[in-house]
């Protein structure tokens, strides 16, 4: 097949019957019809549809060795030009969500591609599994969620010794570990964090945690279908109201990805799906030696540039709408966003221009610029949000809804909430956009997400 469109994607997810729990109930019908997942599934479907638009041919798609069209993120980068195209494609998709969808399909697709290029890093039999998974993902244009951290049960010094070296029963286990193995595969029991879009993807990629160094039963990596028996996705509270609209919640209604705890209830992982097993050294090195971290940072930095562009555009529009753009302190605040944008772009360009061919024949961006970009954005994003808060001030606090404008007091709102050269409803729509990006539950999650991204 090679490429799927939006309908293919939604139909496939609806038919899988993944075990997804949200607000105390298991989703029983189609995930695409559930209020918590409608918006993000439509958004992802639109991304897949873009692959078939002639204007984006050669940007969002590439040609495989067999001659079929494939998603750009599965293409192995062999030149700087390939890296540039990958960045431009990532940013093209990111602009559809103002850069707020952190787990667009290209994120983990990039991980699968990177691992697929580095098959010789793995033990021979497991390397064949990685290669087969990569080819399978390409042929079916698969979507993935992933998990690579353990639950925050107890992070006090020395607790790991208790966790890893005691004899455990099933009831004792918290962090997912291998509890058995047999002819059909390894058996995994316990929980993992943090699966963004958990339950609404075809597959889940499970990568090693730091616990692998303490106990081989944690030294594993694999990918399995999201409807594998015993696999459960326990979702956080959705941020979109049950009847969300694009005026009141312009971003939440479309882009709330919904994060989940992944529970493995004695899940059997077939041997052909295992990538690493009881191999602490490879578990510790898989991120660095395959350059997986750098390829993921490259994708993330490209998306963060787009997000910063939107923050700047919204900030300028807010300032213009209430006539404060001429003040020097306002210009200074907006310049902070401009500086962040230019720094991030420069670091990405340097990463591209200093790219190198790694040991597996993959063109990889230079490490230091991307690490600096990641650190810089993690520390600076909160300040960009604060800049918007300072520009909008009290205007973000008393925001009416679309229903208010349609009520008997609508005329009052039109009179008293108008902006400079803009009607009240237009100005409120702009302010609600800024509020949704920075102050709503969705916006607060965005800040926390960027603050801890890939830490």
Structural commentary:
46% of the residues lie in helices and 15% in strands. The chain has 455 residues and is an alpha+beta fold. It folds into three domains: 137 residues, 4-hydroxybutyryl-coa dehydratase, domain 1 (Orthogonal Bundle), CATH 1.10.3140; 141 residues, Beta Barrel (Butyryl-CoA Dehydrogenase, subunit A, domain 2), CATH 2.40.110.10; 161 residues, Butyryl-CoA Dehydrogenase, subunit A, domain 3 (Up-down Bundle), CATH 1.20.140. The strands form four sheets. A six-stranded mixed β-sheet has the order 2-1-10-11-7-6, with no helix packed on it. Strands 5-8-9-12 form a four-stranded mixed β-sheet. A hairpin with a 2-residue loop joins strand 1 and strand 2. Helix 4 packs antiparallel against helix 9, helix 9 runs antiparallel to helix 10 and helix 10 packs antiparallel against helix 11. The longest helix is centred in the last third of the chain and has 30 residues. It is globular and about 75 Å long.
């Amino acid at each position: 097949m090679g490429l799927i469109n939006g309908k293919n994607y939604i139909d496939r997810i609806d038919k899988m019957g993944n075990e997804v729990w949200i607000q105390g109930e298991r989703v029983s019908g189609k995930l695409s019809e559930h209020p918590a997942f409608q918006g993000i599934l439509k958004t992802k479907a639109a991304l897949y549809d873009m692959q078939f638009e002639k204007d984006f041919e050669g940007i969002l798609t590439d040609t495989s060795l067999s001659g079929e069209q494939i998603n750009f993120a599965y293409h192995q980068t062999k030149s700087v030009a390939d890296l540039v195209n990958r960045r431009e494609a990532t940013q093209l998709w990111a602009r559809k969500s103002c850069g707020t969808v952190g787990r667009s399909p290209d994120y983990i697709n990039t991980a699968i591609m990177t691992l697929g290029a580095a098959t010789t890093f793995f033990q021979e039999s497991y390397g064949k599994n990685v290669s087969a998974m990569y080819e399978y993902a390409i042929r079916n244009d698969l979507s993935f969620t992933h998990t690579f951290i353990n639950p925050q049960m107890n992070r006090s010094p020395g607790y790991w010794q208790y966790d890893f070296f005691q004899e455990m029963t099933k009831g004792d286990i918290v962090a997912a570990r291998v509890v058995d193995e047999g002819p059909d595969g390894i058996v995994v029991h316990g929980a993992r964090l943090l699966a963004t879009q958990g339950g609404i993807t075809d597959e889940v990629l499970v990568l090693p945690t730091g616990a692998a160094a303490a106990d081989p039963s944690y030294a594993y990596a694999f990918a399995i279908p999201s409807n594998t028996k015993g696999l459960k996705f326990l979702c956080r509270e959705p941020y979109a109201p049950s009847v969300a609209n694009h005026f009141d919640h312009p971003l939440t209604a479309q882009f709330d990805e919904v994060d989940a705890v992944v529970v493995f209830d004695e899940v059997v992982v077939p041997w052909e799906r295992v990538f690493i097993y009881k191999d602490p050294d490879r578990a510790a090195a898989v991120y660095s030696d395959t350059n997986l971290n750098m390829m993921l940072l490259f994708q993330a930095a490209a998306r963060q540039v787009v997000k910063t562009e939107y923050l700047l555009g919204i900030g300028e529009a807010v300032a213009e709408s209430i006539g404060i753009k001429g003040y020097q302190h306002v210009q200074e605040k907006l310049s902070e966003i401009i500086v962040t944008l230019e720094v991030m772009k420069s670091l990405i360009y340097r990463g591209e221009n200093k790219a190198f061919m790694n040991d597996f024949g993959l063109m990889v961006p230079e490490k230091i610029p991307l690490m600096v970009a990641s650190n810089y954005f993690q520390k600076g994003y909160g300040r960009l949000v604060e800049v918007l808060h300072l520009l909008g001030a009290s205007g973000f606090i008393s925001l009416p809804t679309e229903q208010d404008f349609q009520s008997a007091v609508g005329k009052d709102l039109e009179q008293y909430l108008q902006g400079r050269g803009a009607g009240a409803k237009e100005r409120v729509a702009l302010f609600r956009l800024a509020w949704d990006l920075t102050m709503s539950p969705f916006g607060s999650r965005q800040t926390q997400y960027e603050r801890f991204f890939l830490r």
